[in-house]
TrEMBL record:
Molecular function terms from GO: carnitine O-palmitoyltransferase activity
Protein name listed in UniProt: Carnitine O-palmitoyltransferase 1, muscle isoform
Annotated PANTHER family: CARNITINE O-ACYLTRANSFERASE, CARNITINE O-PALMITOYLTRANSFERASE 1, MUSCLE ISOFORM
Pathway: Lipid metabolism; fatty acid beta-oxidation
Gene Ontology biological-process annotations: carnitine metabolic process; fatty acid beta-oxidation; long-chain fatty acid transport
Enzyme nomenclature, EC number: 2.3.1.21
Length: 710
């Protein structure tokens, strides 16, 4: 509208009103869906159907003159007001009393079943039973869990039924730490220096244990996120963030804009299912649910840097994506009203961006470097940016305009991202669509971002830090083809333990000085040098240990230990040792979380512990992680062997260490991602990758299982 001397000139746009109307409808739909899902989550493992069954059963028994309420229905009737309103007739009063009693009985049943399910999920004995030797107790337990889990759980249905983390005893953790940091001399005994530091915790042990039982362990997850992640001031790149790779063996499309359209469309469809909680929760062995809390922040989450700590900001909805191309940032809308744009519509918008010839404005090209360097670079790091974004009509009335936008900050994503990406890539392969190549549209008008000189200086400084960090990283990725999970199973051992032993063996062969290795599920696992002396046949000198393959070929090992059966026995003991520690970590009895909790409590109490300070400052020279994958459940890898994603990886934790991520992708292949730093003269990613490959082959030769050609 415009105000003139003659009055107010008010004009209505039907298109604008239509978009406002559709946006309002879409907003209310989301609210109603959230309310419905909140109710269904709140009554799980109950359901509206079970409530109706209880009401009908109670009503039927009442008409048959059978009082299953033991007088409670009559008691409720006496408390209802008489003679007015809807309670005037006896039939209405009876129906209302039955409904009130049935609802109360149903809610009591829901609470009882929920607590029973939580109690059942606290049982971890099934993890420690050998494959194929399940006890009768565990079988009965599994049947009860299945009965109480319901038929169609939503993504967050089990959140209120999951048990809290247990509180390990300090003595048990210290005992595991002693085995964890054994000296790599092969003698199987911790040195005197380590023992003295362990004893340094004894005077404060009882006090710390009382405090952790009181309140600390309940907050350990929040503490871990706050102190380990958000309060870290080092750059996220390499040190914290991880990367994910595309399909490496197959090319989906030759048109870049078409791939972008299909990928973005599939991602938004996945987010749509995530918002509606239509994704099934991850279930171990199809029985035990895993926590789904991390899925809430997979999309629309920003990590904003600050002086002392970062802040996580989560938006309930987002209707655009930020696109970076040749130093320019674009804001690309995903919806037209309430309708998600089709892949072809998105392709046209991406093509406009690809064809835009305008150069980046001063400070725009390296703008993302603001969050790639240190988390706080002084007062200028929070520099304000002003954007002049001109309006432009949609091309041919289809889809939105492309506008400039400031980028947000990246958040540390959980490895659950891998699962979502696998589903997105699978959706692209099955239902992707694109326009014929050569479709060109008019370019968007250039925007004018205003970046001050002070801000440009901060951007350049942060960019130089990030560039030096990135240039220092050596990355070696390879696909191991001689065998995969299929052959490892013939060795009668866990695939994860098999690979972990190979990593330890390779680490020893390169002469690594590392003292411990962390792996999997964020809980650190001990290295395999901690086998006791009695586990080594032939004495305590360690000459026959499997890990003394270091620097020798397999034939040399046979010369030292002619009994192959002894080596196989050692291997299985090492694998079982790894599996046992893995199970302890999975059940909340791991080491590093508990040590961290004790450290925070000691700081709160003002108690100095040389033991905790020393053990938490140990270098992580070999950091490993298995990437979980679900892609082989979506298609037959034997029929489509090239449709495998390679997972992702991360940077080395220590400057003189290695970061190793691996994905056991089916029966016949394993992907490895090995990282190190060029600045360290002791590490070489490609050399270590070759040692990993040879270690896997040597261990397979130990069992004389035929392999495919490498």
């Amino acid at each position: 509208f415009t105000v003139t001397p003659e009055g107010v000139d008010f004009r209505l746009s039907r298109e604008a009103l239509k978009h406002i109307y559709l946006s309002g409808i879409n907003s209310w739909k989301r609210r109603l869906i959230r309310i419905k899902n909140g109710i269904l989550r709140g009554v799980y493992p109950g359901s509206p159907t079970s409530w109706l069954v209880v009401v009908m059963t109670t009503l039927g028994s009442s008409y048959c003159n059978v009082d299953i309420s033991m007088g409670l229905i009559c008691f409720i009737q006496r408390w209802l007001p008489e003679g007015c309103g809807p309670y005037r007739t006896p039939q209405t009063r009876t129906l209302l009393s039955v409904a009130v009693f049935s609802t109360g009985a149903w809610m009591v049943g829901v609470l009882f079943f929920r607590q029973t399910l939580k109690l059942l999920l606290s049982y971890h004995g099934w993890m420690f039973e050998m494959h194929g030797q399940t006890s009768h107790f565990t079988k009965v337990w599994a049947m009860c869990v299945r009965l109480l889990s319901g038929r169609r759980p939503m993504l967050y249905s089990f959140q209120t039924s999951l048990p809290k983390l247990p509180v390990p005893s300090v003595s048990a953790t210290i005992h595991r730490v002693r085995a964890w940091v054994r000296h790599p001399s092969g003698q199987g005994r911790p040195d005197s220096e380590d023992l003295s530091k362990h004893k340094g915790l004894s005077p404060t042990k009882s006090r710390l244990e009382r405090e952790q039982w009181g309140w600390a362990w309940k907050k350990v997850s929040d503490w871990w996120e706050e102190y380990v992640y958000l309060k870290g001031r080092t750059p996220l790149m390499v040190n914290s963030n991880y990367y994910v790779m595309d399909l490496v063996l197959v090319k989906n499309a030759d048109v870049q804009a078409a791939r972008l359209g299909n990928i973005v469309h599939a991602m938004i469809k996945y987010r749509h299912k995530l918002d509606r909680e239509e994704i099934k929760p991850v279930m171990v062995l199809g029985i035990v649910p895993m926590c789904s809390y991390q899925m809430e922040r997979m999309f629309n989450t920003t990590r904003i840097p600050g002086k002392d700590t970062d802040v996580l900001q989560h938006l309930t909805d987002s209707r655009h994506v930020a696109v970076y191309h040749k130093g320019r940032f674009f804001k690309l809308w995903l919806y037209e009203g309430s309708r998600l744009l089709r892949p072809r519509d998105l392709e046209m918008q991406f093509q406009r961006i690809l064809d835009d010839p305008s150069p980046p404005q001063p400070g725009e090209e390296k703008l993302a470097a603001l969050t790639a360097g240190g988390r706080y670079s002084g007062p200028g790091s929070g520099a304000r940016l002003q954007w002049d974004i001109p309006e432009q009509p949609h091309p041919q009335g289809k889809g939105p305009e492309c506008l400039m936008v400031q980028t947000g900050y990246r958040e540390n994503r959980d490895p659950r991202t891998i699962s979502g990406l696998e589903k997105v890539m699978r959706c692209e392969l099955v239902s992707g669509e694109h326009l014929p190549p050569g479709v060109l549209l008019e370019s968007p008008a250039p925007a004018d971002p205003s970046v001050s000189r002070q801000c440009q200086a901060v951007i350049e400084s942060s960019y130089q830090v990030a560039k030096a960090l990135a240039d220092d990283v050596e990355l070696y990725c390879f696909q191991f083809l001689p065998f995969g999970k299929g052959l490892i199973k013939k060795c009668r051992t866990s695939p994860d333990a098999f690979v972990q032993i190979a990593l330890q063996l390779a680490h020893f062969r390169v002469g690594a000085p590392g003292r411990r290795a962390g792996g999997g599920q964020r809980q650190a696992l001990p290295d395999l040098r901690s086998l006791d002396d009695q586990d080594v046949p032939g004495g305590t000198d360690g000459d026959c240990t499997l890990l003394h393959l270091r620097g020798q070929g397999y034939s040399s090992l046979l010369h030292v230990c002619p009994q192959k059966a002894d080596l196989q026995d050692l291997f299985r003991k090492a694998a079982e040792k790894h599996q046992n520690m893995y199970r302890l970590a999975m059940t909340g009895a791991g080491i590093d979380r508990h040590l961290f909790c004790l450290y925070v409590v000691s700081k709160y109490l003002g108690v100095k512990s040389p033991f905790l300070a020393e053990v938490l400052s140990e270098p992580w020279r070999l950091s490993t992680s298995q990437t979980a994958q679900f892609q082989i459940r979506m298609f037959d890898p034997n029929q489509y062997p090239n449709h495998l994603g390679a997972g992702g990886g991360f940077g080395p934790v220590a400057n003189d260490g290695y970061g190793v991520s691996y994905m056991i992708a089916g029966e016949n292949t394993i992907f490895f991602h090995v990282s190190s730093k060029f600045s360290s003269s002791e590490t070489n990613a490609q050399r270590f990758g070759n040692h990993i490959r040879q270690a896997l082959l040597d261990i397979a030769d130990l069992f004389q299982v035929p392999k495919a050609d490498s």
